[in-house]
Amino acid sequence: MLVSAQNITKRFSTHAALDSVSLEIPEGKIYGLLGPNGAGKTTFIRILNQMIQPDEGHILINGNPLRDSDVEKIGYLPEERGLYKKMRVREQILYFASLKGMSEQAARQELKEWEDRFSIGEWRNKRVEELSKGMQQKVQFIATVLHKPSLLILDEPFSGFDPVNAQLIKDEILRLRNEGTTILLSTHDMNSVEELCDNISLINKSRQIMHGSVSEIKRSYIGNMFEIVFSGYYNKLLTTLTPSFKLLEQKTEGERTIVKIEMVQNVPTNDVVQYLMNSGTIESFNPIVPSMNSIFIEAVKQHNETVQNG
Amino acid sequence: MGKTWKIFKREFFSRIRSKSFIVMTILGPLFLAAVLVVPLLIEKYEQNREKRVAIIDESNLLGQTIRDFESYKFVIVTDVTVDEISKDFANSGFDAVLFIPNNIYSSNSVIIYSNVWIDNALKAYVGYALRRDLEYMALLHENVAPETIGKVSTPVFVGVQKWNADGENVDNEASLEKKSIVSTVFVTVIYLFIILYGVLVLRGIIEEKTNRVVEIIVSSVKPVQFMVGKITGIGSVGLLQFVLWILLTFGLVWSAQLILFPEPYVPSQLPEMAETLGATTVSGQVIVPESVSVSYAVDLLQTLEGVNWLVMLLAFVFFFIFGYLLYAALFAGIGAMSDQDTETQQFIIPVTLPLFLPIILLPLIISNPNGSLAVWLSMIPFTSPIAMMARLPFGVAYWQVALSAGILFATCLILILLSARLYRSGMLLYGQKLTLRSFFSVLKKAQL
């Protein structure tokens, strides 16, 4: 399912929650919706779920405007998990699936597979309140995906999971993606963004400030920082006394020395390498790829400053 | 409509399988049956036990004319004063003492002393018997011939006969009384049902908000589907429970009656009743109309033969259901606007006030079922379920019933749609305080 949001604007009485946000979620990919708390992610998700209507702009699904019946093709895992505490696990999952228009028989069959996958079959007749938090999260996840949605919206899907179960969920998300499900992932966990997302969109203060594929965004942030590993002999003095780059950090680990530098001007990389060869034996020379985490922080900081400066 | 049905099913089955439903379904009829049977039982026991009443008669005359009455046995005691008998009353073998002072001819008063409850029947009986005797003697004293006294003291019975518009006899006093009982029963049932199950709707909606299930629901179904499913689901639980209560209570009372009162039972307020019915008496001899029997319900049905039962039952079902729907929608709206149980408590009272109003005014409605107050209350949708049910047993013009039903129906639809709107937009108000301002702002922004 291809989702295209065009110039979505939503105002609440006191502030704008979304200001002309456009994004395109390609079919069969995992799309990360990132942003600080209160940026407008949840509002966007609610619009996509038809829980609220945008003031301006519209959403196209496979090129057609959003329809009432589209809710059945969407699976939504809200950040605030919600289950009926007194209901039994199985009843509950089947109930939610039926609200998404799935037939009882199909739901039962599908549920059996998920019970095996998450090994929670023995819990099926327990009441939700008797379950541990992690177990409840699993139930909630199954309830979200059981009806085989073509668009899966996951809001902080890993919160409340231990690392083992978080990995289990990650594997399931990847498997669903490989089966063709389009996934919108909203999370603050940047490691999982790097692991899972094909594309991202970063929203800050109701505006979209960055979007694109994860690898491209990272490449554009590579910049002028490099990490050089020397083995054996290393002359610190030579490295320090140069105008063409700045030494950021150096540390020695046994026989090796790891040095991080930032190039000052548009000095050709070859010149730098040639110069560094005098300091010792170069084992590797690599551009430093920034993490999504630092890109996130950097971009949000920059945007906040621009907003503040008018 | 498929999803509405699914929500209905969940609301209905999850509730009727709950422990509280099963417990209440069993306890309710037990309680009701106990309320109905225990007083009869106590009365029967009291009635069968002989109660001895000592008469200390300073007039030396009047006491002799008092005959035994029901389970009361009157014994004239002499040579004892009230003070003396009171000292060791517990061992005196008497349940009560009737003291007739020698100044009775001027004071016109006697006193019954007792350490147990003196029922009204005894009081009425003693007063009645002595009054007759005093009058008789006073008149004799004036040299009136006894035959003349008999004529003079003939009581006059004033009957009331109600006509309908065509001048046909409709109600007499006794049937009016019975109709007001039917009216009260209808009204009470509707009132209780609306309050009990309306609040359940409120609870359910707040529960979904605190559980955060609301977000999953709203992203799956339309609020109207949800509201209709929920309100009708809970209403059906109530209806089922109500029907079970009636059946079980009748069953229990009927079997209790078979076991405890195999022969027809006669209530004890007869002297009073006889008095009002104008039964003639000769000093102490109360002549009781024969027809008073235990099959009160059968009697009621006979009394109400003039009423169109089909219209009555249809109207009852309609006002019962739509009265509930109206208030359930109101409660649902409140629930949608807030997410804390405690916070909503303060809203329950103002919302149910219009429902309570006709209950307070019930005596007025019953005494004048076609007066303008009664008619207006039965047109306003917030009071009509109660007011119309109060009026119905007395006969209401069909066009009024139809109009009232129409108004109620329309208001219900509007309120359900409105509460559904509130549900969707109120959902975004987690943890926000429910104020009038936020209420109207949400209402304004609400979208279907």
Write a structural description:
The complex is a heterodimer of chains A (310) and B (448). By secondary structure, chain A is α/β, with parallel strands linked by helices. Chain A folds into two domains: 3-219, 3-Layer(aba) Sandwich (Rossmann fold); 223-287, 2-Layer Sandwich (Alpha-Beta Plaits), CATH 3.30.70. Chain A is 35% helix and 30% strand. Chain A is built from ten helices and 14 strands. A six-stranded mixed β-sheet of chain A has the order 6-7-8-3-9-10, sandwiched between helices. Chain A has a four-stranded antiparallel β-sheet with strand order 2-1-4-5, with helices on one face. Chain A is globular. Chain B has two domains: 2-39 and 174-445, no CATH class; 49-152, Periplasmic binding protein-like II (D-Maltodextrin-Binding Protein, domain 2). Helices cover 65% and strands 7% of the residues of chain B. Chain B has helices at 2-16, 19-48, 82-87, 104-107, 120-141, 146-152, 173-211, 213-218, 223-260, 270-277, 296-303, 309-337, 341-360, 362-367, 372-377, 384-391, 398-426, 436-445; strands at 51-57, 72-76, 96-100, 111-114, 161-163, 169-172, 281-282, 285-286. Chain B has a four-stranded mixed β-sheet with strand order 2-1-3-4, with no helix packed on it. In chain B, helix 7 (173-211) packs across helix 9, helix 9 (223-260) crosses helix 17 (398-426) and helix 12 (309-337) runs parallel beside helix 17 (398-426). At the A-B interface, helix 2 of A face helix 1 and helix 8 of B.
